[in-house]
Amino acid sequence: MSANGGPPSSMVRTTDPDEMRRALACVPSVLVAVGAHVEGQAVVMVASSFTAGVSFVPPLVTFAVQQSSTTWKELRAAPRIGVSVLAKAHADRARQLASRDRRRRLVDVPHHTTEFGAVLLDAAPARLETSIEHVYPAGDHELVVLRVLTMHHDATVDPLVWPDS
Q1: In what residue span(s) does the Flavin reductase like domain sit (predicted)?
Q2: Which residues pair with residue 47 across a beta bridge?
Q3: Which end of the chain is more exposed for a tag (fewer CB within 10 A), N or C?
């Protein structure tokens, strides 16, 4: 705090998205792969805005996605969506999973599809099969609330934490 009780002199008012990204990169978060089988193909994207435990009854989780995401436009139509918390073992594949080249995202990444079409990564510390409960506009993003339908977790597997990835 400054001498007058206001913000420290290093505080900057900004609406610059890049400055916001740099500031929020100081906040550790888990990375999740969000995926589904769409029109005969496994589709996946990575989100760093995952929030677990939004509600336990009913079981709800959230993530945010840019409104301009073409991958989300495809996934949004799927009846079931898989959410896999990336493990430390996925570190060498995290950039690939988030790649703009959607065709190579899942190449050599062990995964499976549930009977209802959710795509889940193998060896993830937590895997959730979900359906969309709500989607809310949030600036240039959408806040997606998912209802957890089935889950699997393995406390012996360490999650991958961003920005340490």
Answers
A1: 24-164
A2: 32
A3: N
CA 117 – CA 122 distance, rounded (Å): 15
Q: Which string of DSSP letters, residue by residue, matches 26-88? A: TS-EE-EEEEEEETTEEEEEEES--EEEEEETTEEEEEEEETT-HHHHHHTT-S-EEEEEPBG
Ordered by where they begin, the domains of the chain are: 27-158 (2.30.110.10)
CB 154 within 8 A of CB 125: yes
